[in-house]
Amino acid sequence: MGLDQAIDTKDDIETEVEQTTDGNRHNRWLLLIAFYKGLQALLFIALGVGALHLLHKDIDDVISQLGDFLRSPESRFLNFLYDRASLINDPLLRRIGALAFSYAALSLAEGIGLFLEKAWGEYLTLAITASFLPWEIFEVFHRVTWIRVGLLVVNTLVFLYLMKIVASRRKLDEDSDLE
Question: Do 65 and 91 have their domain in common?
Answer without folding.
Answer: yes
